[in-house]
Amino acid sequence: MAPLWSHGTTRVPGDSPSHIDFGFPTGSLALTAAALKRALTMWKDGFKPQAEKSDKPAARNGPHSFSQAHWGETVKHYYNKFTSKLSDSKFDEIVAYAEFYLPERFKQLHQQTGIDDDDDLQMSD
Known about the structure:
With 125 residues, the chain is mainly α.
């Protein structure tokens, strides 16, 4: 099964036929897991979190913002302990389960997408 994201290889600019392999998006998965934890933490009581009462508009880097200052260590922890250690087969399994939730039009696009050897940019193999 082909991956749903462009993760595999990308062509190095110029005349070189070289490719750089970026692997699976382990950092993105760690970031997503931390964002999910933040959302569940904020909604843990079952109610929409209330903004602090203030005359000023909410700051982008307020105490509830999803920022490196507040969630960076969580992202690093998930990356170092979990996502960076996932095998290729485990990522394929994650993609297979996630594909179920794609809208039909994206599933069809995914199934029709193939690799053209004449492309200047090869995103996966």
